[in-house]
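#help-structures
NK: newbie question, is this the right format to request a structure? protein is Aconitate hydratase
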Amino acid sequence: MQNHLVRTHRSAEDFPREEHLAAKIAAVAADPVEVPADTEEMIINRIIDNASVSAASVLRRPVSVARAQAEAHRVDHGGAAVFGIDGRFSAEWAALANGTAVRELDFHDTFLAAEYSHPGDNIPPIVAAAQHAGATGRDLIRGLATGYEIQVDLVRGMCLHEFKIDHVAHLGPSVAAGLGTMLHLDENTIYQAIGQALHTTTATRQSRKGLISSWKAFAPAFAGKMAIEAVDRAMRGEGAPAPIWEGEDGFIAWMLGGPDREYTIPLPAHGEEKRAILDTFTKEHSAEYQSQAPIDLARRMRSHIPDLSQIESIVLHTSHHTHYVIGTGSNDPQKFDPDASRETLDHSIMYIFAVALEDGEWHHERSYAPERAHRPETIELWKKISTVEDPEWTRRYHSQDPKEKAFGARAEVRMKDGTVITDELALADAHPQGARPFAREQYINKFRTLAEGVVADAEQERFLETAQRLPELSGEELIGLNIQLDTDVLAKAPSLPNGLLS
């Protein structure tokens, strides 16, 4: 990997285009290097993973809305598939629908470093564009390897949340780069597409703060949609604001700390394999990633606490990110509100730890049910839980040493009789370095579990067989990466009012 210093430049400075971060990313995207076998295997795992969570979310209202919007954009030739329904649709709208299905339950892969991210958000738009363009399975693998690589590399070196910018600002450029690789575009076209994609996908973090709404699911899908449109314009010869990150009125100067701020972005050297997907990790539980290890910790601790009603207080010592995003450091009263939205409860480690401690499990529907959140004993326990930042957990969160890097917490449970019970867990059980790392078997089991009762058995088998043949798939066969549902299943989706585009 090569480290690249990124800072603002005055318009009058001599700043050659080849030194722009967008140009360096475009060079990585255009590099014809082959995809290594372990990267290829993990790409297939993550396509299966995305299908799993899409099956679990397909009947929810936000996903139904996005699907209805896509249905208003059917096409007679080309086009992409939408999860659950028959037909071909405009690629960018298919990307929106499928991306929303993937993101709705906060249940797919993650990468955490200087910034947060869900690199699997690259998959829906790149797959949709591949289906529309008639790309092969091999082309798709190369595009997804680039999408993951650029997303992870930006997340390693450039923090967005410090300045309250949403993490999807890294997603637009990564999707554009991935599409450039898949479509074999030249460096200039990819460069222009990256600039446009960043420019049109920058938003504030209010989508993940306070009264969190269903837009949290739409936001990454919208970024993927914008990236497809950016690539389309760039292919037609249109340009982008430049330099997009480093300009005097660019992204860094006005949104990421000002003209004196500097960032270091690692990128593969020419000819270097794209392996970043191997540093990402998926979820066993449908909750914000920083709650994965605490859920496993709560499940482990409950056997040592015979009577939960005798708990006086619980303090979770954890990282800066966990404390301030999903803990009491956020100062969000909604995180203690039993009437809060599912999206808000998903970002309350206090609620999550309480329910996992009581139930010994975490379920993508039961654990968020309104009646579950309103249990008096749960509310009582919930309000006894707080978080504090521990500098050591913060250090481990940012460590580049895989033996030290951690996303967990230490729990101190004080009982009413004065007894203190403590335990800690650094990594979720499903993490690559955890107690039960996910491999192909676990991804397939997750898919079968979440697809049960939603996707017919024969369709499940067809999808799994198709996904695992990804390197061999022709352009015509890529449509098989989307699953169709029986009409009686789709009929269970909520009834929706007509929108403008109906």
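mod (FA): yep, format's fine, and the tokens are attached above. The chain has two domains: 2-279, 289-425.
NK: thank you!
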